[in-house]
Write a structure and sequence with these properties.
mainly alpha; 14 helices; globular
């Protein structure tokens, strides 16, 4: 086997491992058949297996803080924490699998969500002081969730467009369920901070890099960086999404103005002149025919 064949084989093995373990809710694991020399050479980038749990913890902590600051009781705070932390992964599994969601078969996810809800219930004010840090962690968690959702969809045999959709749902599904349970309009559909747009771009980046047979670990890192830059950058620079713009009146006024400015045809081209009508030659009359009854010639 040549060196190029080894690289191609290694890429396919790593890609398959990422898909398999993304469907189980953890990041990629390198097969023991891959030599340590190849890994040391930088040909395989593997993210730590605890990163998905960290993403759940960050999202769950944000949900618990959201509920505690709005005066929810213990049931409400824990419900929002579980919905925000686990909602995206649950929706992902419901979309691409007919079996039990994987987070319920791995109890550590539920345990992490429980402890983050407990911390958020008692220390919501302290957590709010680290808003900048939470924005950074939220951006990284969003990118990782995009990669987990899109990777599981690709492993399930879905096309690229569907994989991007699943990646977005995995990233924004938690905040969406949180807002619904809290009785407010979901933030992803309201004008304001970038939430869905970074998820869409990060999912596209991940799927594109994987389909180009690039390293799946690098694709995950790229998705996290893209989501972080867009999410945090929009927050710090005050960039917000706008509401729908009504253009009907503008289009109507534009066409009316164009109609008024259109040149009119000269009068002599549209109406016959009176002098021409008076001097127009009349048809000769036949003397053998009787005149008309009204006396006209």
């Amino acid at each position: 086997m040549t060196y190029s064949d080894l690289l191609i084989s290694l890429r396919h093995q790593t890609r398959k491992l990422v898909y398999e373990h993304a469907g189980k809710g953890v990041t990629a694991l390198v097969s023991t058949a891959v030599s340590t020399n190849v890994i040391a050479a930088g040909l395989v980038v593997v993210l730590p297996t605890w990163l998905p749990y960290a993403a759940v913890a960050v999202s769950g902590l944000a949900g618990a803080t959201y509920g505690a600051k709005r005066g929810f009781d213990v049931v409400g705070v824990f419900g929002l924490a579980f919905a925000t932390g686990l909602g995206g992964l649950i929706l992902r599994d419901l979309l691409i699998s007919s079996s039990t969601p994987n987070i319920f078969t791995e109890p550590l996810f539920v345990i992490v969500a429980f402890w983050t809800a407990l911390v958020g219930f008692f220390f919501a004010g302290l957590i709010s002081r680290f808003e900048s840090m939470m924005i950074i962690l939220d951006g990284l968690a969003m990118g990782l969730l995009c990669a987990l959702g899109a990777g599981a969809a690709l492993y399930a045999g879905l096309p690229e467009s569907s994989a991007i959709f699943v990646g977005v749902i995995t990233a924004v599904g938690g905040p969406f369920l949180r807002d619904v349970l809290a009785g407010t309009a979901p933030s992803i559909v309201r004008p304001g901070a970038f939430i869905a747009i970074p998820a869409v771009v990060a999912s596209c980046v991940f799927v594109g890099m994987v389909q180009l047979n690039l390293n799946a670990g690098l694709a995950q890192i790229a998705a996290m960086i893209v989501a972080l830059v867009m999410r945090a950058g929009a927050q710090w620079f005050g960039l917000e999404t706008g509401s729908a713009s009504e253009l009907s009146d503008r289009v109507w006024n534009f066409w009316q103005r164009k109609a008024r400015e259109a040149p009119e045809a000269p009068a002599e081209q549209t109406q016959p002149r009176v002098a021409d009508m008076q001097t127009a030659p009349q048809a000769p009359t036949d003397p053998s025919k009787p005149p008309p009854a009204d006396g006209s010639q």
